[in-house]
């Protein structure tokens, strides 16, 4: 930012003082601002469907957080709680609007910062990366290619050969299948951190479901040849993908109607 722009945004900052144990942001809530840590310590954590918490990061003075939901216009992907008493400087959506003449540069900087944080979160929580140390995780990530997809983009089309493994970095995608009468049956939604594409790889068959982006999304893709190498070399990954495929097959059969679904028409993604 230029000095003039910096002075303009300083005038819009809001100081938030929070006690120990308070939540600065809550997972699932809309994101209308982001924060600088002026003092104190916070923990970033995600909560699964069973209420179990996974720590993602610790934040201290000078750290930035909350920008992901603001930039993507999506709900908060994690919670941030106060480990000590904390002073935060809040930058709201309106504050960014005051930088309209320089917003492109600011947005690009925040997007780059956000991507690194998303990748770090993914490595921390995804079972796909847990068997590896930090250096191996980074090496594996470099094997993935990153793809930004617009809403309504079809990432996997029912009936095609499985091309590889996908991981959702940001956004949301729907999974559906064509029924016998030609209608489309929704099977579920995929969100940040979810892995898909594993069924056709594990079962060595074609895909029988379609995956479509419902929001602006970013997916990471690993070609099937490299997946095969990892599966053969790391038994934990093979077991994870096989278990994931089995659980999804059961869920899909329940959605479609288990008694009416022939065994050779089970849902494979």
In short:
The protein has 269 residues and is of the alpha+beta class.
Explain what the structure shows.
This protein is α+β, with helices and mostly antiparallel strands. It folds into 2 domains: 3-125, Jelly Rolls, CATH 2.60.120.10; 134-265, Jelly Rolls, CATH 2.60.120.10. The chain is built from 8 helices and 16 strands. It has helices at 3-10, 67-72, 93-97, 103-125, 134-143, 198-202, 224-233, 235-256, and strands at 14-18, 23-25, 33-39, 42-47, 53-59, 64-65, 79-82, 86-92, 145-149, 154-156, 164-170, 172-178, 184-191, 195-196, 210-213, 217-223. The strands form 4 sheets. A 4-stranded antiparallel beta sheet has the order 1-8-3-6. Helix 7 packs across helix 8. It is elongated and about 60 Å long. The N and C termini lie far apart (46 Å). The model is unreliable at 258-268 (pLDDT under 50).
